[in-house]
Structure formats: structure tokens, C-alpha cells
Amino acid sequence: MSFAPRPTVVAVAAVILIGVVDYVTGPMLSMSVFYLVPTAWVTAQAGRRAGLAVAALSAVAALMADVVLQAHYRHRATAAWNAVIMLTTLAVVVELVHRVRQEAVSARDAERRSREFLASAAHQLRTPLAGIRSSVDALLLGGEADPEQEQLLVNLSQEAARAGRQIGSLLRVARLDQHEPVPLRGVEVVDVVRAEVARAAAAAPALAWDLEPEVPDICARCNRDAISEALANLLDNARRHARARVVVAVRVVDDHLEIGVGDDGAGLPPGQADLAFQRFVSLDGLGGNGLGLPIARGIAEAHGGTLEYRGGAFVISVPLDSTSAQSGGRGGT
Predict the structure, then answer these.
(1) Mean pLDDT of 4-9
(2) Yes or no: is domain 185-327 CATH 3.30.565.10?
């Protein structure tokens, strides 16, 4: 069992050490600024009361080192006033650090509450939207609507599906922000890639979808559903930008598996790669919600990997399964 010293204990020890050095060097070498460090640090770690206590201890240590224990020092009154001024200065520093600490805690709590609200709202909205879609589909299947009403119902169903996807994206963002653990196991990523490419090709048959797995049957430590979602977002992004062709490549680089998704579109403008990964940012106005790429990057990072834009393609990199990387065996799903 390891022992972790409390911040106040560490700060007191630091003040004592500074006081000893202050006494040894004498009043000719001012050590006042060094007392500021433990005082500010313990205030940030333990709060205002602890900071004021360490500030008072610092003033006493300075007074002892420069006045009481220096019998031959002539300017004792000046040194005493310096100790008083130092105590006042340290008290002001304690108050400033305390307020900054409060603001940081308040901001963190507000962010946490916002994330919890987002997750709860997104979860609660999924059920009524599913009910709306079911009702609309039932009306369409009933066949009693005239053509104009039927078109309105189709539009309503499409908009409900679109809202459902948006809410699903918001819920995924909230879960990524809350750092929910992602269960990992050995997954044959090439099989996942093939399945997602087939779905994308069925949704956009006018495009040529090329899969170039250089190394088949590679097992990586990942979550099948999460990787599928990340890849689906990248493929949807490529579908909206491609002129005629989308290329998906799977390769092994050192101890990582890389999945690259590129297209023959214009690509990202120079210097806009980082902006493309920001939430709710759409650089093209082609129907994206600005969450696909951030979600894909968050999923990659949750796997201990990365998502980058390089060479005109978005590249997911995730660690290989160590046993499969060495033996080439097949991993479970």
C-alpha cells in the first residue's frame, strides 16, 4: 500500500526547507519569493484555509530566519516589516488562487451537468421518435392515403429518421465525453471493413467502392460495434464528397492496424484538417451534422489509437492484438 502525503504536509515541509535555506543565506539574500510557491500550491490543492495557514507559517519562518535568529543583523525592524508585507502579499495570492480554483470547479461541474443533460435528453427523445416512425410506417402500409398525403408521410418518416440519427450522434458524443469504458477483444477488422463497405455501396451504388486489404484476417484489440460506427461515419463522409470513387485500404504499420478512407473529391482545404474534427463544424454544407468526424476520432482515441487526415484520406490507427500480431491466429468477435 503506497503512502500519498497530504498537500498541507508537503507545503509545510517545503516552507521549513525554505526557512532553513533563508536562515543559512542570511538577510542579504531575499527568499521571500520562494515562500510563494508552497502557499499557492497548497491553496490550489486544499483550499483557502490551508493556504492561509501556510502563508502564516511562511511569514513566521521568514521572521525567524531573518530577524529572531540573526543576532548580528542591524536592520531588524525593516526585516520585520518585510515579513508583514510578505504575509499580506501571500494572503492576497491565496485569495486569488482560491477564486480561480472556485471558478475552475464551477466550470467543471457545469460541463458535467451539461453532458449529463445531453445524454439524458438524447436518450429520452429516442423513444418518441421511434413511435413517430412506427406510426408513419403503419399509415403508409395501410394504403389509405392519397398521393399527396403519402408524400407527406414519406417526408415525415425521413425527417424522423434524420432526427433519430442526430440524437444518436449526440448520445454517442455524450458517452465519449463521459469516458465510458469500451470493452475490447480480438476482432478481425477486415471483416468489419468489408461489411461496412458493402452497406455503403448498397446505399450509393453509383459510386465505385474499392477495398484494398493488403493484409487479410488481421486481429486488433477493439470493439466491433464502435469501430463499425467510426468507419460508417468516414464512409458516409466520403460518399458525400466523392465524384466517382471511394477507396478503403487496410494495412499494418509497426504494431498498429490502419484503416484509410479516401475519395476522388476535392479533399480538405489546406490548413482545415483540425477544423474538420471540431464538433458541429461542416466545411462543405452537403448535409453533414458536423459530428461524424469528431465521433470517429473519439472512438479511435477510446481504443488508444488516432484518427488523422493525411495523404487525402482519413486514417484510423488502432493497436494490434498482441497475441495475434505475433502468431497470426484468428481472434474471437
Answers:
(1) 74
(2) yes
